[in-house]
Write a structure and sequence with these properties.
- By secondary structure, this protein is of the alpha+beta class.
- Helices cover about 50% and strands about 20% of the residues.
- The protein has 5 helices and 6 strands; from the N terminus they run βαβββααββαα.
- Helix 4 (about 105-145) runs antiparallel to helix 5 (about 150-180).
- It is elongated, with a radius of gyration of 20 Å.
Length: about 180
């Protein structure tokens, strides 16, 4: 089993391009992706180093697991690798690519991808944030002493959520703006 490598790497939902580039580099180094386990574990198998491009698509489970969906990519020469948390991973040898070929061939489909990610990943986070975390912080401030452990626990969650919202929001805004 020395030919299997487990790597831990954290990517946010806005880092799907960087994730594809990292997977491409891993393949170039002789490690091809075989699967992922949430939230951040990647499993690779030793292979001959080759020039392969990895790209990700985001579809909810119902759409992404259909045979028609995968066949559409196969017809365009993309090999389905795996899925993890509604992200679907594909790869294609550079030798089979025409120009700077991508899964999404036009800006409208790229903007649609951003919309799907926003709808299925960010909107639930907003619900949790505004429905659970903010009310708990408010209650901690009004009902308890600010030195209460729960206050600090929710305050740390508040900071983490704000950092995530800022990172993802700015990145999505820049991506969407560059596509228009």
């Amino acid at each position: 089993m020395g030919d299997i490598l487990k790597k831990t790497r954290i990517f946010t939902i806005a880092d799907f391009r960087e994730e594809g580039e990292w997977l491409t580099e891993m393949h170039r180094s002789g490690w091809k992706l075989i699967s992922m386990t949430p939230p951040c574990f990647f499993y690779f198998e030793r292979c001959e180093p080759e020039e392969v491009v990895y790209q990700l698509d985001f579809r909810n489970r119902r759409d992404g697991d259909s045979a028609e969906y995968r066949q559409m990519f196969r017809d365009c020469g993309w090999e389905y690798v795996s899925s993890c948390m509604s992200f679907h991973y594909f790869r294609k040898p550079i030798s089979q690519m025409v120009g700077k070929e991508e899964i999404f061939s036009d800006n409208a489909s790229r903007i649609d991808l951003l919309g799907r990610i926003w709808k299925w990943r960010m909107m639930p986070l907003f619900v949790i944030f505004f429905g659970c975390i903010l009310p708990q912080i408010y209650q901690s401030i009004t009902d308890r002493a600010p030195m209460d452990i729960f206050f600090w626990m929710f305050f740390v969650l508040l900071l983490l959520y704000l950092r995530l919202f800022l990172h993802v929001g700015v990145k999505f805004f820049r991506m969407k703006h560059s596509l228009k």
